[in-house]
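Hi R.,

Quick one: here's the thioredoxin-dependent peroxiredoxin sequence you asked about.
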Amino acid sequence: MKNSAAETLVLGLLDRWWNLDGEEHRLSPGDKAPAFSLADQNNQVFDSSFLEGKKTVLYFYPAAGSPGCSKEAADFQERIEDFIRLGYQVIGVSPDSVEKIKDFEDSQQLTFTLLSDPEFEAHKAYGAFGLKTLYGRTYRGVLRSTVIVNPDLTVKNAFYSVKATGHISMLLKEIS
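And here's the predicted structure, written out as tokens:
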């Protein structure tokens, strides 16, 4: 089902409001990783400066507890030792509340950091928020994305609109 003219107009206005330059923001290799300060699953402040000096896989997911996000988190957890062996920390970021990501951590038995970004600040800064199409309808939302951050806080690589399954193996090849 296509968007009506009114829906298209509203999407255009929202696009200008969320992205004043009217363009989707994407990070590229060599870009400086945007700064952020978010709460983790234990309601502790996690500042992006904590990434300095560490190789990081920062992944953005739409909804803790949803089937796709649960599978993606389980895949990261299943391969967490491979990431650690390669010197990487894994951090997941979602718009969910601290309480929800804590429940997600517990239910999925995750051993890596999860961050709460209810205002989409980090999502937007990292290009993980934008236009999506589902069942023929276009809307704005979280784009499942992964950004590899170097110890000097530059972007090694960024992958947008990835699938919930299958991209963990690709990431491990990329960082090996």
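The longest strand covers residues 88-94.

Cheers,
M.
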